[in-house]
Design brief:
Layout: H1 3-18, H2 26-34, H3 49-70, H4 78-91, H5 99-112, H6 122-136, H7 161-169, H8 181-206
């Protein structure tokens, strides 16, 4: 990793640990993801190192949430298919021909299960976000990063799979009666300490 990225990871760790509910503000995540490599118009995970790294960390976040889904709906495989396609796009073993169908199936599965569980259905959203990031990358403009803007105020294009995964591990929104700040903190520490460095390194290795 670069010294600048390591510095932002340390800043992020301090911020999320200090927050009473262990909320991790987008401002820190956006800087970290931007330091993977600036987004480039028309990029793909096979042609752009930063895009590939962001895809890898998004896919890993979504994979980590799958047990929440599988405990309730083990025969509904739409989130798995979305992530399999995303991984295939990253390693060049699949093309984009099935993107719209797989994405639609994943979002439909999530929508159909919103009444069954307050948190687990978001796994479908998380997998869909990871697939979308893999194909289109993320919208990251440093001049627009604000330390005072929470996730709930972000446009849909500015959100990422990690924020949805944190909501799943954290029992929903902070205001939810099921809110679990310990689970939220454990997820973010994993993201900072393991997922981000691994995606950075794996993205670099694939480009050599």
């Amino acid at each position: 990793m670069t010294p600048q990225l390591s510095d932002w990871i340390e800043k992020g760790r301090g911020s999320v640990m200090a927050d009473p509910n262990h909320v991790f503000m987008p401002y820190f995540r956006q800087h970290i993801l931007y330091l993977f490599g600036a987004p480039a118009k028309g990029s793909t995970p096979l042609t752009d190192e930063g895009h590939r790294r962001r895809a890898l960390v998004a896919i890993e976040c979504a994979r980590k949430t799958l047990p929440f889904w599988d405990r309730l709906w083990p025969r509904v495989l739409a989130p798995h298919r979305a992530l399999d396609l995303a991984e295939g796009l990253v390693n060049g073993q699949k093309d984009t021909g099935d993107y719209e169908r797989v994405l639609s199936e994943c979002m439909t599965a999530a929508d159909l299960h919103t009444v069954d569980d307050r948190v687990a259905w978001r796994v479908g959203e998380c997998a869909a976000a990871a697939l979308t990031t893999t194909l289109y990358d993320q919208f990251l403009i440093p001049e627009a990063f604000s330390p005072d803007t929470p996730d709930i105020q972000l446009d849909g294009d500015d959100s990422d799979a990690s924020s949805l995964a944190a909501m799943i591990f954290g029992g929903g929104h902070v205001e939810s009666p099921l809110s679990n700040k310990v689970g939220r903190l454990e997820f973010w520490i994993w993201w900072l300490n393991e997922a981000v460095p691994r995606a950075f390194d794996e993205g670099t290795l694939l480009s050599k």
